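Lecture notes, continued. The same structure-token format from the folding unit now serves as the input rather than the output. Read the line below as a description of shape only.
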């Protein structure tokens, strides 16, 4: 859904976020396609994954939806919240990978001493004439 915006008051869910060259309709279509893809993957995991993997998948899906909802404006919030939601999603992905590896009998882990905590590679906030518009 298009949003009303002025150069002086960007929608809160886009505050501090650089304007994309892609039209909003394309971005919304991309988010919807990703959601459908996640839904299909979730159904496969429900059929093939153990209980811990299914729970990790629920957590991952919730984190991904939180990102989607801010991206589409359903949950208006700040750039800092956006980054926090993406970091939560990153942690949920790592937890899912860890439980999946255990479920599959794969040795080793994706976190810990061998693989130290990593943060998302997010660009710094930009302040330009197109920010948030």
């Amino acid at each position: 859904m298009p949003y009303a915006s002025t150069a002086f008051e960007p929608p809160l869910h886009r505050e501090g976020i650089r304007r994309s060259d892609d039209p909003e309709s394309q971005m919304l279509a991309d988010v919807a396609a990703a959601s459908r893809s996640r839904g299909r993957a979730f159904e496969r995991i429900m059929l093939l994954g153990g209980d811990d993997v299914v729970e990790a998948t629920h957590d991952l899906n919730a984190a991904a939806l939180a990102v989607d909802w801010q991206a589409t404006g359903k949950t208006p919030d700040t750039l800092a919240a956006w980054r926090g939601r993406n970091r939560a999603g990153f942690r949920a992905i790592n937890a899912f990978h860890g439980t999946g590896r255990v479920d599959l009998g794969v040795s080793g882990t994706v976190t810990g001493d061998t693989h130290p905590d990593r943060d998302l590679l997010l660009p710094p906030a930009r302040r330009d004439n197109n920010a948030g518009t």
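Point for the exam: DSSP finds three helices and no strands in the chain.
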